[in-house]
Design brief:
- This protein is α+β, with helices and mostly antiparallel strands.
- The protein has one helix and eight strands; from the N terminus they run H-E-E-E-E-E-E-E-E.
- The strands form two sheets. Strands 5-2-1-8 form a four-stranded mixed β-sheet, with no helix packed on it. A four-stranded antiparallel β-sheet has the order 4-3-6-7, with no helix packed on it.
- A hairpin with a 4-residue loop joins strand 3 (about 65) and strand 4 (about 70-75).
Length: about 120
């Protein structure tokens, strides 16, 4: 093979490998991207009359615990990642804690919402 032909062949092979390698590198992350994990949330809703609070959460994987700053107790998380509990401790900050350190979202602080209207259907929860 002549030197000029060999040089042309090597340059063409090198250029095509760079172009194809870049295309494969760009396409690989899109194809191999993992499914996004929904961000769990927790909400504390006071009773309109101030007697108790309802704590609801969604997007969690079990097992999880609920902490009120003084005590911790297990949560019953359903197959959809939701939970609902009622507590009489009204003026505390609630946090949902992971039981194991390798779980996503080791802790989630619950946000306080406005009390629900007392005329709402109590059986809708």
């Amino acid at each position: 093979m002549h030197r000029r032909n060999r040089h042309t062949l090597l340059c063409a092979a090198l250029a095509s490998s760079v172009v194809l390698g870049g295309a494969v590198a760009l396409a690989a992350p899109a194809a191999a991207a993992p499914a996004t994990v929904p961000t769990p949330s927790c909400t504390v809703t006071p009773d309109p009359e101030g007697r108790f609070v309802i704590i609801t959460g969604e997007g969690f994987t079990g097992p999880r615990n609920l902490n009120d700053g003084e005590s911790t107790e297990p949560l019953n998380i359903d197959e959809n990642g939701n939970f609902r509990v009622q507590r009489f401790q009204k003026d505390v900050s609630y946090t949902v804690l992971a039981v194991y350190e390798d779980q996503d979202f080791v802790f989630v602080n619950c946000e306080i919402s406005e009390p629900q209207d007392s005329s709402a259907d109590p059986n809708s929860w």
